[in-house]
Structure formats: structure tokens, C-alpha cells
């Protein structure tokens, strides 16, 4: 999937402002961003629900609006609004969706795997929020899509259902399915994604694997224990100029800076040269959530 220079406006508000991104085939790609960043509008345009006002979108090499009939059997979509008829029973809805495809998954087996068998005869409107989420996911994948769009797939799920969803998505990727995922759970994106695009103010501000994005933040923390009263001023003078060292309590030290193997070697060398025995050393790197907040801001808008 490829998006180039996409622009989408609502009156005087520019929701998407020249956004470009790629989704590699057979990957799980997460599109992250704060509320109002433009990610939902972008994904809905890729799904064919909106026409680009400027720029281009290609999904499986096709135009999602002009080639909708050809794309529909090849693409699965999980909507935040669910997409099921409110009066339909869960298994009826899933079997109906399966009947629309040439080679669907076994709907009963899929329902059982996602914990829907026990509520199969319950009308959609009476399902819990988590059950509705699981049914929406099942409806999106039952047709064996080549490309799968998931909007907040684990919102409202308990830990067991969330883990089952992660395992299913990993299996789909292993089978060659391309997954585009939007989520506010940074641990989910970090665990599942091969590629992450961070969107803010209608454009992509950072892209890369979770490891690349967290490494790009560079700053991290080293916590070490030693005897109380280590000369932290002298230690800082031996380290890169932007490194800070503080004794937070007796014999417990926190070092912050651009953590890399050279800095760790400099720290241990200085301790050895000054007869300081380190009892423990713990390196803490940025999480994806830390990096996301660095990129998009740490205050509410």
C-alpha cells in the first residue's frame, strides 16, 4: 500500500496535510498519532470510504475508490463502529460474512477461537463491548483477506482476549497477510509491528521499526549502585558533556544521556580507575511510548 502527498480538508480545517507513507507487503504496520492527528481520515481514505482531495492512494496496486469492486474481496476492514446489524446474532452475522467470500475461514472455528461461541445466539446489540470488538475482528478476517485494516482492535478487551488477538494477527502475518493497525496502546504497537508511522498535524513525523524509533530517541537511563558519596561531578566530567549523573539516595545513582556501548564502557572504566565497585548496573532505554510523547508532546491539546 502506498500513500503519496495526501491532503484532506473539512472546511477550513486541514485534517491531512501532504501525508506520505508506505506499507510493506506481508507486514504489520502501525499508524500512531494523538487524537485529531489525521490517522483515521488517512486510513478511511485507504479503505475507499473517502476520496482523496489531493495526492494519491494505491491499495494492492489499485485505486480504492475506482477499483472498489475488485478490491472488496481482497481487503478486510474492522471498523470502530462495529459494522454488524444490531438485531443479528453473533454467529449468524459471522456466517453471513463468510458466505460472501469464495474461500472463507471456518466461521464456527473462528468464533470459538475468539471466545464468541458462548454468546453466538446473542443479538449484537446485547453483546458486551469486548464481545462486539471480537466479532468485528472475526468479520474482518473470516474472508481470508490479503490486506487487513484494524482500527483499535483490542480496545475494551480483557488481557486474555487481547493476547488471543495478538496471536491471531501474528499468524495472519506469517501467512502473508498485510495488516494496517491503528492503536493507542504503545505496547501493542511495539510488540506486533514491523513498521510504525507516527502521524501528527496531518503528516508523518517519524517512521521506522519500533527498535529504530526508540533508538533514534537516543536518550536513556543507567541506574547503578555503588558506595555512597561517589564524586558525581568528576564522573560527569569524564563522560560526554550532555550526560547527567545524580545520587538519588545513598549509594544509588542515576545517569541520563545518550546511552550506547561507549558510554557504558566509559562509566565502568572511570569506576575502576577510582576504586568504585559497582554492585549493579541497569540500562533503561526509551520505550515506544516515551518516543511517541517526545515526538508529539506530553501535554493535552
Automatic annotation (TrEMBL):
One Pfam family this sequence matches: ABC_tran
GO molecular function: ATP binding
Locations listed in the record: Cell membrane
Membrane topology: Peripheral membrane protein
Gene3D superfamilies: P-loop containing nucleotide triphosphate hydrolases
Keywords, sorted A to Z: Antibiotic resistance, ATP-binding, Nucleotide-binding, Transport
Coiled coil segments of this chain: none
Domain ABC transporter: 1-226
Keyword Kinase: no
Keyword flag ATP-binding: yes
InterPro entries tied to this protein: AAA+_ATPase, ABC_transporter-like_ATP-bd, ABC_transporter-like_CS, ABC_transporter_ATP-binding, P-loop_NTPase
Main location: membrane
PANTHER family the record matches: ABC TRANSPORTER ATP-BINDING PROTEIN
Name of the protein described by the UniProt record: ABC transporter ATP-binding protein
Amino acid at each position: 500500500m502506498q500513500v503519496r502527498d495526501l491532503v484532506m480538508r473539512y472546511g477550513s480545517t486541514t485534517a491531512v496535510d501532504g501525508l506520505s507513507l508506505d506499507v510493506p507487503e506481508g507486514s504489520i504496520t502501525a499508524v500512531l498519532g494523538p487524537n485529531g492527528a489525521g490517522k483515521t481520515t488517512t486510513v478511511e481514505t485507504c479503505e475507499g470510504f473517502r476520496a482523496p482531495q489531493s495526492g494519491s492512494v494505491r491499495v494492492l496496486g489499485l485505486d480504492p475508490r475506482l477499483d472498489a469492486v475488485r478490491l472488496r474481496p481482497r481487503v478486510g476492514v474492522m471498523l470502530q463502529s462495529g459494522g454488524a446489524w444490531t438485531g443479528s446474532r453473533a454467529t449468524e452475522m459471522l456466517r453471513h460474512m463468510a458466505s460472501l467470500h469464495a474461500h472463507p475461514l471456518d466461521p464456527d472455528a473462528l468464533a470459538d477461537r475468539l471466545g464468541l461461541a458462548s454468546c453466538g445466539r446473542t443479538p449484537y446489540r446485547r453483546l458486551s463491548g469486548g464481545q462486539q470488538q471480537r466479532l468485528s475482528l472475526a468479520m474482518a478476517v473470516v474472508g481470508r483477506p490479503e490486506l487487513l485494516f484494524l482500527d483499535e482492535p483490542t480496545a475494551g478487551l480483557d488481557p486474555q482476549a487481547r493476547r488471543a488477538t495478538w496471536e491471531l494477527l501474528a499468524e495472519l502475518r506469517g501467512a502473508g497477510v498485510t495488516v494496517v493497525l491503528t492503536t493507542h496502546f504503545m505496547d501493542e504497537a511495539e510488540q506486533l509491528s514491523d513498521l510504525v508511522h507516527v502521524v501528527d498535524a496531518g503528516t508523518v513525523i517519524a517512521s521506522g521499526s519500533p527498535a529504530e524509533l526508540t533508538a533514534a530517541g537516543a536518550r536513556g537511563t543507567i541506574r547503578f549502585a555503588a558506595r555512597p558519596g561517589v564524586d558525581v561531578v568528576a564522573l560527569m566530567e569524564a563522560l560526554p558533556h550532555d550526560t547527567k549523573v545524580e545520587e538519588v539516595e545513598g549509594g544509588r545513582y542515576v545517569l541520563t544521556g545518550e546511552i550506547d556501548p561507549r558510554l557504558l564502557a566509559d562509566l565502568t572504566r572511570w569506576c575502576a580507575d577510582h576504586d568504585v565497585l559497582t554492585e549493579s548496573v541497569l540500562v533503561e532505554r526509551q520505550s515506544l511510548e516515551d518516543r511517541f510523547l517526545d515526538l508529539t508532546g506530553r501535554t493535552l491539546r
